[in-house]
Design goal:
398 residues, alpha/beta, FAD/NAD(P)-binding domain, 3 domains, five-stranded parallel β-sheet, 7 helices, 26 strands, 21% helix, globular, binds flavin-adenine dinucleotide
Length: 398
């Protein structure tokens, strides 16, 4: 593939946040080769955070989600095309239009998709919320009438959709199997504050609860759901937010190591392959501080990882990525920020700051050596920097 006169070619699969950021960063890092960005959605690259927030409530136009990075030529953005197979030994991808494309470097930024709920048959009533099309569909629905929404899963997406639908005066029931809201990332104190925000804003929150039976009308009228708490709900719409799965099926016959995503090192390089990389929601990235592979499904890690892959390809920065996990969520007017990796064994303690904001509250999560390993800040973003420093220092002392 290489030789005199050969121009390097990087193909990126997945034209969303990580894909576009990687393309733009390659140029910033001085990469002069050809870049091809392939995406199976038909929209120009867009970001997802506004979809469940301002786009859904109508506070922002749909265009707010569009990503605006410019990539200097030679650059080709090919939309509506899906990669279906990878022959790593030949450095070739097969596409769903039966064409193929060769590469010198391949970057996988093909993200994740919502996990489906077996109890619910496919229907106009049931929405797995992930894409711009999903957001437009739900936004149209919540704006044209007032109805009854059932949200299954009180994680990031479910909680935000519940909050946005309440803002549109929909009647919202939020169901979760767990006894506490966002229990994977929040301790009891923080969970109860978020729970309280939902209840104060009129969300009918049902915890330790699941769907036991569903009669779903395929045309979207007259659906009825029975819950494990013995109640029955008539619903106009159901949104499911029970987690995501990495989009790796099409790579099953490649030589890549797949385990809850594409296994990559701390520079984004796929295990045992020199010229294939992954970043963002599809990547199971080795984190030096935690000493293991982690798949983050958040905006900042997708951006950081994409930039790191670009620097690795360009050869401008070969240091490992050692980022502190960070995510945020907006619910009922509150900004909730998450730092570090929480663990159920950690002790939750309220964090005290000198200039406490009257409404906000923050919690630290401490290991049994008394080190602060994670934190959640609720409406106290002014303190993000100092909390970040504390957790970073405690990770360095591991
Ligand atoms: C509604 C919503 C709200 C969010 N809000 C927040 C937030 O407030 N804060 C936060 O930190 N994070 C948030 N996130 C998470 C954040 O948006 C994701 O971590 C981020 O989108 C990951 O980017 P990505 O480029 O890795 O993957 P994706 O955004 O999933 O993009 C992958 C792209 O690749 C395409 N693709 C898949 N397979 C193929 C293939 N074989 N060939 C071609 N194309 C393919 C997909 O269709 C998709 O367009 C939110 C996510 C959602 C869904």
């Amino acid at each position: 593939m290489t030789g005199p006169g050969h121009q390097s070619k990087t193909v990126i699969v997945g034209a969303s946040l990580a894909g576009l950021r990687c393309a733009a960063s390659l140029r910033r890092e001085g990469y002069e080769g050809e870049i091809v960005l392939l995406g199976n959605e038909r929209h120009s690259p867009y970001q997802r955070p506004p979809l469940s927030k301002a786009v859904l409530t109508g506070r922002a136009p749909i265009e707010r989600a569009t990503l605006r990075s410019q990539v200097a030529p030679p650059f080709e953005l090919r939309l509506g095309v899906e990669a279906t197979a990878l022959a790593a030994e030949d450095q070739v991808l097969t596409l769903d239009d039966r064409s193929s494309i060769s590469y010198d470097h391949l970057v996988l930024t093909c993200g994740a998709r919502p996990r489906h709920l077996a109890a619910l048959p496919p229907s106009e009533t049931v929405l797995y919320f992930r894409t711009l099309d999903d957001a437009v569909r739900l936004r149209t629905r919540v704006q044209e009438s007032i109805g009854r929404l059932l949200v299954v899963g009180a994680g990031f997406i479910g909680s935000e959709v519940a909050s946005s639908a309440r803002e549109q005066n929909w009647q919202v029931t939020l169901v979760d199997l767990d006894a506490r809201i966002m229990s994977r990332v929040l301790g009891e104190g923080a969970s109860s504050i978020v729970e309280q925000r939902h209840r104060e804003n009129g969300v009918d929150l049902r915890l330790s609860c699941s769907i036991s039976e569903a009669e779903i009308d395929r045309d979207g009228e007259n659906s009825r759901v029975s819950l494990s708490d013995g109640s029955t709900l008539d619903v106009d719409m159901i949104v499911v937010g029970i987690g995501v799965e990495a989009n790796t099926e099409w790579l099953a016959n490649s030589s890549l190591t797949l385990d809850n995503g594409v296994i990559v090192d701390a520079n984004g390089r796929a295990e045992g392959v020199n010229n294939i990389y992954a970043a963002g929601d599809v990547a199971s990235w080795f984190h030096p501080a935690y000493g293991r592979h982690l798949r983050f499904e958040h905006f900042e890690s997708a951006t950081n990882q994409a930039q790191k892959v670009a620097a690795t390809i360009a050869g401008t920065d070969l240091s490992p990525l050692d980022e502190l996990p960070f995510a945020w969520s907006d619910q009922h007017g509150s900004v909730i920020q998450f730092l570090g990796l929480s663990d159920p064994s950690y002790l939750e303690r309220s964090l005290e700051f000198s200039d406490e904001s009257p409404h906000g509250q923050s919690f630290g999560y401490y290991d049994d050596h008394g080190r602060c390993r994670a934190a959640v800040l609720i409406d106290q973003s002014a303190h993000l920097g100092e909390v970040k420093t504390t957790i970073t220092q405690s990770l360095r002392s591991l």
